[in-house]
Specification:
This protein has 9 helices and 8 strands. By secondary structure, the chain is an alpha/beta fold. The chain folds into 2 domains: 60 residues; 239 residues, 3-Layer(aba) Sandwich (Aminopeptidase), CATH 3.40.630.40. The protein has a 6-stranded mixed sheet, with helices on both faces. A two-stranded antiparallel ribbon has the order 2-3. The longest helix has 57 residues. The radius of gyration is 31 Å and the shape is elongated. Bound molecules: zinc ion. The site of zinc ion has 7 residues, from loops.
Length: 325
């Protein structure tokens, strides 16, 4: 049907068509390769963005899932986050500023008058207080109930340290002393850990939130700085801006310093602490002292001093439960 000439013609035409097809395919391949590269780059950018957000939320805190680990050795602490100004103190604890005056706030209506000789509804409040002589505030009417204690760090997480003194062990010793002190005063106690085990920060908040009627939550920690180690010492209380937290933090730092004679470095609001921001009851994280300071470290490592700290915190719980509830 076809002449030789025609076939030759069609061969040449076919060859040109093949070349065109080949070029088209090449262009398509290049386009696809570029597209894949572009998508890959976009994906990497997106991942970096997520990572960045994660890092930012670490510092901002409050974001879900951020587990802020405080006072990693070598990291200088920012303590001046939100130290109470006198005006703030007045606004927050106006009624407490004149503790003892009968005209204080409406929040204490259920406990009636503040005089200490009226027995508590739940009874046995003052009866169980045997050895403590720190009743200068006259808080004989504190409400008894459940207090949650959190010994910071534990297990694989040692916290900060000075030589072979590990924060997790000091925290636990003070937490156990606090447990005993509170029980002797008639409180029930819930502990997030009672031995050297690791519990995640979110988990701590969750298990404490799951308990019914926790009056207050105290997380026990030790502080550290990276420079000027032996010049920096004292007690700090950190908390979150929620009902009752400011009062509790201020009372804890004040009472611990009163009992131990340690330097009062004040209370501060911190947004990036999981245990105070994710719990639902009045909560405080108390930094009982600086392990990085050799002198304070030696004190914190002694059983007597640990008991003093426990007494100070228990005094604060007494005052808090009497005034807040
Ligand atoms: Zn700690």
């Amino acid at each position: 049907m076809y002449s030789g000439r025609d076939e030759d013609y069609y061969d040449r035409r076919g060859e040109a068509e093949l070349r065109r097809q080949f070029r088209r395919r090449l262009r398509l391949k290049r386009f696809l390769a570029a597209l894949i590269l572009l998508l890959g780059a976009a994906l990497i950018c997106f991942l970096l963005f997520l990572l960045g957000k994660g890092v930012v939320s670490l510092f901002k805190g409050g974001g879900s899932g951020s587990e802020y680990v405080e006072e990693a050795p070598g990291v200088k602490l920012e303590v001046v986050d939100n130290i109470y100004t006198p005006e703030e103190l007045l606004r927050l604890f106006g009624k407490r500023a004149d503790a003892g005056t009968p005209d204080n706030g409406s929040e204490s209506t259920d406990t009636g008058a503040i005089t200490s000789d009226v027995p508590d509804d739940t009874g046995a409040a003052s009866g169980t207080e045997s050895g403590t002589d720190s009743g200068s505030d006259g808080t004989g009417e504190h409400r008894l109930g459940l207090i949650a204690i959190d010994a910071g760090h534990g297990g694989m997480d040692s916290g900060t340290y000075n030589g072979d003194v590990l924060e997790k062990n000091i925290n636990l010793a003070i937490a156990l002393a606090l447990r005993d002190e509170l029980k002797s005063r008639g409180y029930s106690v819930y502990m997030t850990r009672e031995d050297d085990t690791y519990v995640g920060l979110q988990k701590r908040a969750e298990i404490v939130n799951a308990q019914d009627g926790v009056l207050a939550f105290v997380s026990v920690h030790q502080n550290a700085v990276d420079s000027d180690k032996n010049k920096i010492y004292g007690v700090e209380a950190w908390t979150y801006k929620r009902d009752g937290c400011g009062e509790l933090a201020q009372m804890v730092v004040d009472h611990v310093c009163e009992v131990t004679g340690a330097k009062n470095r004040g209370a501060a609001f911190k947004t990036n602490l999981v245990v105070t921001s994710k719990t639902t009851m009045p909560a405080v994280l108390v930094e009982c002292g600086f392990l990085s300071n050799d002198e304070e470290c030696a004190k914190l490592n002694s059983e007597d001093y640990q008991k003093l700290i426990a007494r100070g915190i228990a005094d604060a719980i007494d005052e808090f439960t009497a005034s807040y509830y």
